[in-house]
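## retry 2 of 3
previous attempt timed out at serialization; input unchanged, resubmitting
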Amino acid sequence: MLRLAMTTRAETFDRVREPFADRDIEVTHVQVKKRAIRLTDVDPADAALSANFDVGFVYPGRLMEGAALDARLDIPWVNDREAVLSSRNKAGVIAALDAAGVAVPRTVMISNPVGESVVVDAVSEFSFPVVVKPNSTTRGIGVAKAADLDSLLGLVDYLNLVHDFRATGDKSYLIQEYLPDARDYRAMVIDGDCVGAVERRLPDSLGEGRWKHNVHRGATATGVDLPDRHQRLAERTAAVLDIPYLGVDLLETDDRLVVNETNARPTIDAATKYEPDFYDRLAGLIHETAERGRTSSKNGG
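## retry succeeded, writing output
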């Protein structure tokens, strides 16, 4: 039985335990946050630091804590630190995909500190409204829509206040074109193949004026059969970024299909929303990752 260190205790953890057990993978939660992590004189009773794990899933979103745990666990990860960092950097993803010819929304990155004129010039070729995004947040946190230039500059004022704090590490944000009435899909790609997707919609009960489709903000995710074109776009995205397990967010309007964002730590939804062999493929990737780790250790790599 393969021993898997899992760094989340949210919905994904409960959903995968039984399917993974059926595929010779024992899942154990490794707590990353809200705890004390001994860096020296490690307590043998601390299962998170002393257990003999074979593989991890996936590298912790808390990168600082993740580095400490990773040093102790010494295991390969399905989506390692580099994969998580790459996907989290929205600007880097957009730039890499655009350079590879993958369709993305028109986007400009602002690196503070800049004067107001830089922002005005940056959006001179945009049509309002525009979307403003912190570069490295998830779940739609901090994402806003600006209806006009004055509204945009007001949002920028707030971002400038945050970025003026010396401890703020990422002092950048994105300004992106807004695609009205776009359908929002999350496609799942495992080891190069699209293995299912959901469409995220806002229920009528949320009322008018809502436009963010994040499930954590109240949207519902319904399993859908993506057209081949959508699947190939998601697979191309994962190939360009070289990330083996990836959630790819697609936006579709009447005349455009673009990659909006990616997530290297995607939530796994109910199995009925994916292809029948979803867990076979995911378990296969976990076993392959563990085997590569064992081979690397034998070779001294």
